[in-house]
Design goal:
This protein is 42% helix and 18% strand. It is α/β, with parallel strands linked by helices. It has a single domain, classed as Luciferase-like domain (TIM Barrel, Alpha-Beta Barrel), CATH 3.20.20. Strands 1, 2, 3, 4, 5, 8, 9, 10, 11 and 12 form a 10-stranded parallel sheet that branches. Strands 6-7 form a two-stranded antiparallel ribbon. α1 links the parallel β1 and β2. α3 packs across α5, α6 crosses α7 and α7 packs parallel to α9. The protein is globular and about 60 Å long.
């Protein structure tokens, strides 16, 4: 097992907002509280703002926070167009504020209801592999040709290119082939399925990531490790303050000392980034409290 060499970071998962002004206010508050990123949902049939449009709008309405998703589902956008979209937003946002967290998608009805081609799990993973190759090839070259199993490009051109030459690519993954792909090809891993059942269970999953990295000749410790979770900081019983929201119940819940213990246990298992979700009725009180009592003391 490799413990990440990266510093601890915190992101926010804003969920359940149906008014644009409300979600912008929350993202600005997260930025002010010291959160490094905001991550949006990308499930088009659900009652929410379209994930890429929202990320673009929030990037232009904030100053420093990174915009990403959990996860941006590959079947919904052709890779070359996504490369152009991401590069354009990077330039518009001032550089260094866009992170692609890609997934192969898991909800078949979400795609088919919109008329989007689906495919077997292995085919969708092939499509993700093609997408990563196309994104990086287009960002690195004046023109790029690639023949993949699911996606191809022929002398494709993306201008402007990202201001830093490329963009970080994370992968949302849970199953062995996807975990190994993280190690082989990604800059970071978002554990799908919410909060780990235990630090040991998480460590077992990340062994697959490490194995993929080692096979590719990469240092596993350089790959960022992200988990989604609930959050609540305070003396009250967190179960009375919020209902479980992201997969299995659990997360960064309790007094500051309790939260520091939880962070340390998962840090030892390999986690270096926590993307949290607060109950919306207390989010405006929780964001500054979490920033002052947790983030400011950890970063």
């Amino acid at each position: 097992m490799s413990q990440s060499s990266n510093p601890i970071r915190f992101g926010l998962n804003p969920r359940g907002f149906t008014e644009y002004e409300g979600i912008v206010a929350v993202c600005r508050a997260a930025e002010a509280a010291g959160f490094e990123a905001v991550a949006f949902s990308d499930r088009p049939p659900e009652t929410n703002f379209e994930g890429w449009t929202l990320a673009t709008a929030v990037a232009t309405a904030t100053e420093r926070v990174t915009v990403t998703h959990s996860t941006l589902n590959v079947p919904y956008r052709y890779p070359a167009l996504l490369a152009k979209m991401a590069a354009s937003l990077d330039v518009i946002a001032g550089g260094g504020r866009v992170r692609l967290t890609l997934g192969a998608a898991a909800q078949e009805d979400h795609a088919t209801s919109f008329g989007i081609p689906w495919g077997a799990p292995g085919e969708r993973v092939d499509g993700l592999i093609d997408t990563i190759a196309i994104l990086r090839g287009l960002w690195a070259n004046d023109s790029f040709t690639y023949e993949g199993k699911r996606y191809s490009v022929n002398e494709a051109v993306v201008n402007p290119r990202p201001s830093g030459g490329s963009l970080p690519i994370f992968i949302g993954a849970l199953r062995p082939r996807m975990l190994r792909l993280v190690g082989t090809a990604a800059d970071g891993w978002l554990k799908n399925g919410g909060w780990p059942t235990s630090p040991d269970a998480y460590a077992q999953l990340q062994e697959q990531v490490d194995r993929g990295a080692e096979q590719a000749g990469r240092d596993p410790a350089t790959i960022r490790r992200v988990v989604n979770c609930n959050a609540y900081v305070g003396d009250a019983d967190p179960n009375s303050a919020l209902a479980p929201t992201l997969g299995a119940a659990g997360g960064l819940l309790g007094t500051p000392d309790q939260i520091f213990e939880i962070i340390e246990a998962h840090r030892e298992a390999g986690v270096d980034t926590f993307h949290v979700q607060f109950a919306n009725d207390i989010i405006h009180e929780q964001l500054p409290a979490f920033g002052e009592q947790i983030i400011a003391k950890m970063t």
